[in-house]
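help with this record:
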Amino acid sequence: MKKSQPSPEQHPTADVLIIGAGFAGLGTAIRLQQQGIRNIVILERSDDVGGTWRDNQYPGAACDIPSNLYSFSFAQNPNWSRSFSGSREILDYIHHLLNHFNLRQYIRFNQNVSNLAWDQDKGLWQATTTDGGVFSGRTAVMAQGPLSNPGWPGIAGIEDFEGKKIHSAAWDHDYDLKGKRIAVIGTGASAIQIVPELAKCAGKLTVFQRTPPWIMPRPDFTTPEWNKTLFRKAPMSQSAVRKALYLAHESMALAVIWNSPLTRFAERLGQWHLRKQVPDRWLRRQLTPDYRLGCKRILVSNDYYPALQKPNTKLITWPIDRISENGIRTVEGIEHQFDCIVFATGFEVSNAGTPFPITGIGGRSLNEEWKRGAQAYKSINVSGYPNLFFTFGPNSGPGHNSALVYMESQMDYIVRSIRTIKSLKLKALDVRQSAQDDHNRSIQKRLAKTNWNSGCQSWYLTEDGFNATMYPGFATQYAKQMADLELKDYRLLAEEAASKTV
């Protein structure tokens, strides 16, 4: 007799199902809670909160946005230890949010979502986890973040290496790096923080560079105690500093997003920084970008260039042919032998496809629809997937300002939408395809004039050059876009009407 399979474990229906307990997931829960919506379930795949800041604990990990701006405006921290805080301090701030706003009650830890599907009859989103659990919600928020899954490079022989392999987003703190022969693949945001730390302990450190980044000076200072005291006793002073930082970063858009005289000024600043720190002309030439500033992510560091010039450190710009059992072979035929390879190769960014299958009305697949590039309405909603909301959805990426500034606009839009669903007793709030198409035509037209689309390859673009990642404007413009919930752009299906049609 055939053994019957156990039925999946069902859980009570939530008003809001949130996937991910990083900044976006917790911030959305806070805003919902403040509006009196407390029937919330947060599904977190790990055993702790924090998202990318929990996972990225590599040596030197820090934020490249000032701490007073890389935090929520409604929960400012007066105790930042320095201008640009490290990942552990940012994770401490996230834990503060968790405890201060009593969010642990909503979180289901160790729940890795493997499928999300819309039940048209019930008007519910159903999330299935890898252990067979099923969680239902009238609405669902994708808050897993764009930088959540480590991206391993497609280099031949990567499985053949017999030494230690470490990815920057999954650091092995038990492995002793002291005196080892270490390779670092990648020269992006993670690499320029890792390399200076590894140079302090490695016997031999080799950095493999494909494309040199634009690097700016980092104005990082220890916060004096009087400053912390002032912020604690006069919170408005911290708000004023935050506003000044916001405006300063807004002005950077004129150099970063569009090709302007300020772009040339910023390039000269980057070139000055390089000349000041790297006296050797040949090394300087290898480290000089040959593309327009802003086309790729701009980095900030005071110690990356000096680290490359240490006696135990070497920069290699020959392309990698393959990884062998003992090390890395470059195209000119030389095999470099290592004890450990560090992959500072970033993340699998969902600008084409979804992190797990998402099924909408009539069985449509979002993964299939996004294969050639993700599209959404205001980065938040996708037609055919009612009551589903994205944080850091398509074309919401900032190139010049704090991600949390954009995130707050998204969270407030989501909360406004969910309140509307509840107050109007809607079964479904589904953006019209025509509104989504109009929005994306406008976005892509604006993107065509930006530095991101000026010809270089970056993780902002899909393989065929479609920019599904960045927002082509000021953070102020993005906030204005998200300020209004325009119901004319949506199809509204009331609960009563829905019950009559079943």
